[in-house]
Amino acid sequence: MSAKPMGPIPPGFAAQDGQLIIGGRTAGELSASASDTPLFVYDGAMVWKRIAALRAAMPAALSIHYAIKANPFAPLLAAMVGQIDGFDSASAGELEMALAAGMVSDRISFAGPGKRDGELETALAAGVTINLESESEAARAIAIADRLGTRPRLAVRVNPDFELKGSGMRMGGGAKPFGVDADRAAALARRVIDAGADWRGWHIFAGSQALDADAIIAAQAQTLALATRLSDDVAVSPPLVNLGGGFGVPYFPGEAELDIERIGAALGEALDMREPVLRNSAFALELGRWVVAEAGVYLTRVVDVKWSQGERFAIVDGGLHHQLAASGNFGTVIRRNYPLAIANRFGAPADEVPTTVVGCLCTPLDLLGAALALPAPEVGDLVAIFMAGAYGASASPSAFLGHEPAQELLL
Ligand SMILES: *Cc1c(COP(=O)(O)O)cnc(C)c1O
Questions:
Q1: Tens-digit pLDDT profile for residues 344-396
Q2: DSSP label of 210
Q3: Nearest Cα to Cα of residue 300 among 361, 403, 380, 409
């Protein structure tokens, strides 16, 4: 059996005496300090570097918001407060996390379909901006605000009439549970304004995980055009246009980093040429995975090495219950290999026989890496799965099969 390719190991991870270094410490030290594997390690310095690079590439006036659902680890959120301009939450739980982290309420937004009355009340009482997903949600939010005696901060989430091409998860263009269709958005904004609410503007999110700069540039141009058209229809300048995000990261073979410099230059030009109705508006991007994915490594230990019909399996103490995405069961159609390494022999040559790395769950879905070119694994080795900083611990079915949750560590 020949080896199958894996995604690119992110730059910035080096070896010292054959040991993978994360945030200046070896994987072995990190797993020992956490008392046991499996373990998610997040390198804070890498996150801050990403944010700085993004700010350098984007127009100076653009705000950068972080979508909490990518990684809600509390110490990470708390450390991020001084680095990022706002948090986007998608549930009352995430909203509480944003507040607990110390983000001020006027820099927090709350999006997502199916907000319950209690969640709307929490958001209204806290004074955060609610990104309205439907006309009926708007009516409920306004009624609850009336009862609370507070002036609601409401933005309208628009289901755009275009899509972000090449995105891994489409969230616009067609019938969608997200936002209000573009042809009804202006009427909803008008209703919100007439009800006396503090209308905060537009939220237009067209998709996720795009690696093609041209596709993002095109979607941003369409987003600005849509915001212009809608604002002209309402005849009010929106205080904020949330341009969405969709910046992808390379997980799989053949994928490469997004060219953010090109996106930033194009966005700068587009904003410079914006129409009068957007002249005094503020603009924001909301990014999740692009900010945090590469900074996270999932460390798990080889419990058993076995052979079946000439194929070698390394069985680890983690699995899809912590890192569902690496198993290919989180939003991918065709399973491909995430970048993965033996952390205590990082950079060592691969054995000629490939290794399939599986988790400890009793299901064939728990496949973490198929037929990988790795050094021959031994019991006790540490396996590092890269690109684990987003949609890892919190996006995996940790109750499945009754194992302990993974530990998490921010460096
Ligand atoms: C999920 C989500 C994000 C973050 O998406 P990433 O692909 O992680 O950048 C941002 N905004 C909204 C509205 C979302 O639903």
A1: 999 999 999 999 999 999 999 999 999 999 999 999 999 999 999 999 999 99
A2: B
A3: 380
Question: How many whole angstroms from 274 Cα to the centroid of ligand 1?
Answer: 25
Q: Contact at 8 Å (CB) between 119 and 164? A: no
Fold of 72-287: TIM Barrel (3.20.20)
Alpha helices in 58-116 (DSSP H): 74-80, 92-101
Q: State both tokens at 270.
A: 């587009």
Is 46 within 8 Å of 295 (Cβ atoms)? yes
What are the pLDDT digits (tens) for 178-228?
Answer: 999 999 999 999 999 999 999 999 999 999 999 999 999 999 999 999 999
- Nearest-CA neighbor of 128 among 163, 156, 98, 162? 98
Residues composing the chain = 411
Ligand 1, pocket-test mutation among 286, 292, 294, most atoms within 8 A of CB: 286
Confidence band, pLDDT 50/70/90 cuts, at residue 335: very high
Residues having CB closer than 6 A to ligand 1 are: 67, 69-70, 88, 90, 111, 205, 208-209, 245, 286-290, 390
Query: CA–CA separation, 36 vs 23, rounded Å?
Result: 18
H helices present in 195-344, as ranges: 213-234, 260-272, 289-292
CATH architecture of residue range(s) 14-42+294-410? Beta Barrel (2.40)
Of 217, 188, 191, 215, the closest CA to residue 203 belongs to: 188
pTM > 0.85: yes
Parse the chain into domains and list their residue ranges: 14-42+294-410, 72-287
